């Protein structure tokens, strides 16, 4: 199989430079004049290499560290390695296959990955998640505006209102149909979460960990541009990114704030919905962010769990009586999910109780079980990344 030469340059630089993959992509694309279509091809090749490279090492160089002198040999070997055939073999494993340390090595995952997920998820569902993790990631779009002009390569996702699948992931996102502001790229798990949270047009909503604002834009679309969404950011750069995205979509009900803004004090106890989409290990999104597997450890997971509980405790004070506190991660690990919710409930047993997703499930006719907390990404359908979602209600 022929690969783009820049794919190998990025792959080789990823390990010794220790940089985030998205930063490395930007750097290499800046150093070389690469058109948008090439960028997407390179992205899919590189993520495939990095995602399954530990599997290649486990078979060919078990336990051996990489040094610079060996890179020429390794690069030649991986060019000859049939990554797609290896992934296909894993995808076609029988559904009753037991998750063993040897199998996890073939999936290029740490031996503890299975136990980190927790015994409440049976092996067949874990295997479903693992299979999806080595598949080419579909591109899903969220409809932000009504009466969209649909591109021929788009098809609606059955059972999820406003969700579209892009059948040609190599398309140029500089095209007019995408730049018009009618769509945002968003995985199905994030789309389902927004629908389940079910914000109403006149609600006051706080997106406590807004980042670049993908979730915020989805919420604003569901609220028809009405009500108010307060977004909390770490950096001015994130605020500027969100403002540009909001302007592109014609959204005017978003109020970005820095997390240390004095104006936040006046909002305590006033919000209908506070959503804490907490920073996490990202273990649920390894097919789009494969570098995650090189950072996983017990220490990292424990640190995340502690930080997540701090965030949940802090932002719970902004929920009004009768309002909803939503907690989510894109992790599949129980320590970052059920354990955090259990610790929070213990600390706030006289103030907060588990709520229900039934209003959102019923309003949008979603074919999901009415359970709270809920994990997404383990079943065959919908083809979403790993995601955890819980909602708590503040007592009146």
Topology, element by element:
Blueprint: H1 5-17, H2 21-31, H3 36-60, H4 71-80, H5 83-91, H6 101-106, H7 113-117, H8 123-133, E1 139-143, E2 154-156, E3 163-166, H9 176-179, E4 183-185, H10 188-197, E5 204-207, H11 214-222, E6 228-233, H12 236-249, E7 254-258, E8 271-277, H13 298-315, E9 319-329, H14 338-347, E10 352-354, H15 358-363, E11 374-376, E12 387-394
Parallel strand pairs: 5-6, 5-8, 6-7, 8-9
Antiparallel strand pairs: 1-3, 1-4, 2-3, 9-12, 10-12, 11-12
Helix pairs in contact: 1-2, 1-3, 10-11, 13-14
Alpha-beta classification: alpha/beta
| Helix content estimate | 40-55%
Radius of gyration based on Cα positions: 22 Å
**Whole-number average pLDDT?**
88
| CATH architecture descriptor text of the largest domain | 3-Layer(aba) Sandwich
Total domain modules: 3
Give the biggest beta sheet. 8 strands, mixed
Give the H and E element order. HHHHHHHHEEEHEHEHEHEEHEHEHEE
- By DSSP, the count of extended strands is 12
Put simply, the count of helices is 15
Range of strand content: 15-25%
User: Which regions have little confidence, pLDDT < 50, spanning 5+ residues?
Assistant: none
The CATH topology of the largest domain comes to: Rossmann fold
Shape: globular
Distance between the termini: 63 Å
């Amino acid at each position: 199989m022929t690969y783009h030469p820049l794919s190998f340059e990025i792959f080789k630089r990823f390990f010794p430079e220790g940089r985030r993959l998205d930063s490395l992509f930007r750097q290499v694309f800046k150093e070389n004049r690469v058109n948008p279509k090439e960028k997407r091809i390179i992205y899919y090749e590189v993520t495939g290499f990095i995602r399954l490279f530990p599997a290649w090492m486990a078979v060919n160089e078990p336990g051996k560290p990489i040094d610079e002198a060996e890179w020429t040999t390794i690069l030649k070997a991986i060019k000859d390695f049939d990554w797609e055939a290896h992934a296909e073999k894993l995808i076609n494993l029988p559904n009753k296959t037991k998750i063993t340390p040897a199998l996890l090595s073939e999936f290029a995952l740490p031996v503890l990955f299975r136990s980190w997920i927790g015994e409440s998820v049976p092996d067949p569902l874990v295997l479903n998640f693992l299979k999806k993790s080595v598949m080419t990631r579909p591109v899903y779009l969220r409809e932000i505006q009504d009466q969209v002009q649909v591109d021929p390569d788009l098809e609606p996702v059955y059972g999820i209102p406003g969700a579209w699948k892009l059948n040609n992931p190599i398309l140029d996102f500089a095209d007019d149909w995408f730049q018009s502001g009618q769509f945002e790229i968003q995985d199905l798990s994030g789309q389902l979460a927004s629908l389940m949270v079910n914000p109403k047009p006149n609600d006051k909503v706080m997106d406590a960990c807004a980042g670049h604002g993908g979730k915020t834009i989805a919420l604003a679309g569901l609220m028809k541009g009405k009500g108010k969404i307060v977004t909390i950011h770490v950096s001015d750069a994130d605020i500027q990114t969100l403002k540009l995205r909001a302007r592109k979509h014609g959204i005017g009900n978003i109020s970005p704030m820095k997390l240390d803004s004095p104006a936040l004090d006046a909002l305590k106890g006033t919000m209908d919905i506070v959503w804490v989409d907490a920073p996490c290990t990202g273990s649920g999104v390894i097919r789009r962010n494969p570098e995650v597997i090189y950072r996983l450890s017990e220490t990292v997971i424990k640190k995340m769990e502690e930080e997540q509980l701090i965030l949940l405790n802090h932002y719970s004070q902004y929920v009004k009586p009768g309002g909803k506190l939503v907690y989510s991660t894109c992790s599949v690990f129980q320590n970052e999910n059920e354990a955090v919710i259990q610790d929070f409930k213990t600390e706030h047993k006289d103030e907060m109780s588990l709520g229900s997703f039934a209003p959102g499930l019923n309003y949008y006719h979603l074919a999901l079980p009415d359970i709270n907390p809920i994990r997404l990404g383990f079943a065959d359908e919908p083809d979403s990344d790993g995601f955890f979602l819980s909602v708590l209600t503040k007592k009146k």
